[in-house]
Design goal:
globular, Heat Shock Protein 90, alpha+beta
């Protein structure tokens, strides 16, 4: 079966997180041609939710919110999602679990994203932030 391709643009608003998660789930089921990887699809949805929340809350913190572009490719063993936004650049913290005594709520997004996908990449592409999440399914894919 040929690879599936999808793209969408959504306003940088927390109101769009649920539709985005549903969109990712539907894309995964279509690309993977099965619902058998429910746990791994959920992990990808969680990573997408955390990433989109970080973009909305942090990249657009001092800027008027615009939109977030999402593109995806997938087949029966892998889904790759790419995100672009025009918010402030991301300053990457070290990939470690934050100290629990210092954080009552929040601050876990980057760690969760890294735990939920097989590969996460970030770069500043001119005036835009670019994120790439890769999730492999099956025996090689995460837990």
């Amino acid at each position: 079966m040929p690879a599936r391709i999808m793209s969408c643009r959504f306003p940088a608003s927390l109101h769009y997180l649920t539709p985005l998660r549903h969109f990712v789930q539907a894309f995964c089921v279509d690309a993977l041609e099965t619902e058998a990887w429910e746990e791994q699809v959920y992990q990808l949805q969680l990573a997408v939710s955390e990433l989109a929340t970080n973009i909305i809350r942090h990249a657009y913190r001092d800027l008027p919110p615009e939109s977030v572009e999402v593109a995806g490719t997938g087949d029966t063993s892998e889904v790759i999602l790419e995100f672009w936004d025009t918010g402030s650049a991301f300053v990457r913290p070290p990939p470690a679990l934050p100290e629990l005594v210092k954080l009552a709520e929040g601050g876990y997004g980057s760690y969760l994203i890294q735990q939920c996908v097989d590969d996460v990449r970030y770069e500043r592409d001119g005036e835009r932030n670019y994120w790439r999440l890769e999730k492999r399914f099956g025996e090689r894919g995460g837990a």
